[in-house]
Amino acid sequence: MELQGKVLNRALGHVRTDEGRDPRALDWDYFRVFTTVAREGSYTRAARRLAITQSAVSRRIARLEKAIGARLFDRRTRGVDLTSEGTRLLNYANGAELMLARGVGSVRESANRIEGDCKVLSGDGLGAYWMPRFFAPFLQRNPNIGLKLFTTQDHAVNQTPLFDLQIHYTHPLAEDSVAISLGTLHFVLFASPEYLVNFGIPTACKELRHHRVLDLTSRLTDKGSFASWAGLDHDAVIMTNSSAILGETVRSGGGIGLLPTYTSALDQRLIPVMPDLHFHAPLFVCFEREAGMKPAVRTTIEYLKEFVFDHHRMPWFSNHFVPPQKDWKQVFETCLERATIDESRQCVAAGN
């Protein structure tokens, strides 16, 4: 029976060892002392580097040799030399140190890496024309964040329970919701050059009765659509609830429509008409407090504030109205480049 037990233990990969030689019972500090002695070539210098006594070094090496069952060092007049067994153990110890360092680095990187999803709801105009231009730099900065993007035409409905972030024109009503100002959207009339050649340039509201007015049904302000807000006495020739449809119809020469002033930064073909006739809508990013605690959501909020809606560098998001300017396209390209340049600097820093 005893013989069968020994055979069974070996078949299972277990080897009986004396208690003093069981490698699982070894103090890992023995290997720290061993590698230091091997690299210093001296018990005295190793003790000095480890800030312990030479006798403590000697005791730990002796215990390690006893546990392993092999002599690790040959003593010399001016220090010690590794034996063949010591050299073999040092190779394994160096490998273990390297693996441990990689493990620490991996855990540290994982702890510092921001991961997760962020569900964002915005108006279809911002969602189709403005925000996507900043997604590539965002994904370069945050490769482990997944954006889930949705659009809506009804900005009055609070849908923060369904989405992490909601970008709209009103403060949230729920007590546990937070609203952070992103700036202000300003709106003026735009038309294509082809349209203005065919129909002329209006200079007053009353002249709009002779033009093809395009209108949006969503309530940008408490005054309703543009037609009712401007006091027009006729219906718009095209009515839609989609900012994207409105914008594309204006671009194609279908009529005059109210668009955000950042249009001038994206498409200088479109011409602002009657810029003195304008209105604004405050822009907020809203979220529930619990959602705002998630790292991926916090990172997205900071990116929106610093790059996508930078009202300090982008005059079209300023809190006071600035008429569209010819240099806005260049201003926009500089802001977009800033996000990309910052990312390239981060990559260089990471490489160093």
Description:
With 352 residues, the chain is an alpha/beta fold. It has 2 domains: 2-111, Arc Repressor Mutant, subunit A, CATH 1.10.10.10; 116-351, 3-Layer(aba) Sandwich (D-Maltodextrin-Binding Protein, domain 2). 44% of the residues lie in helices and 19% in strands. It is built from 14 helices and 11 strands. The chain has helices spanning 2-11, 28-40, 43-50, 54-68, 84-112, 124-130, 135-141, 193-199, 226-230, 243-251, 263-266, 289-292, 295-308, 328-351; strands at residues 73-76, 79-82, 116-123, 145-152, 165-168, 177-191, 213-216, 238-240, 256-260, 271-273, 279-288. Strands 3, 4, 5, 6, 7, 8, 9, 10 and 11 form a 9-stranded mixed beta sheet that branches. Strands 1-2 form a two-stranded antiparallel sheet. Strand 7 (213-216), helix 9 and strand 8 (238-240) form a beta-alpha-beta unit. The longest helix is centred in the first third of the chain and has 29 residues, at 84-112. The protein starts with a helix and ends with a helix. Mean pLDDT is 82; it is low at 1-20, 219-223 and 343-352.
Gyration radius from CA atoms, angstroms: 35 Å
| Helical segment count | 14
Helix content: 40-55%
Strand percentage lies at 15-25%
Q: What is the CATH T-level topology of the largest domain?
A: D-Maltodextrin-Binding Protein, domain 2
Please state the second-level CATH architecture of the largest domain.
Answer: 3-Layer(aba) Sandwich
Class from helix and strand fractions = alpha/beta
Largest beta-sheet details: 9 strands, mixed
Question: Distance between the terminal alpha carbons, to the nearest Å?
Answer: 63 Å
Report the top-level CATH class of the largest domain.
Answer: Alpha Beta
**Average of pLDDT:** 82
- Tell me, briefly, the overall form: rod-shaped
Number of strands: 11
Give helix and strand order, one letter per element, not per position. HHHHEEHEHHEEEHEHEHEHEEHHH
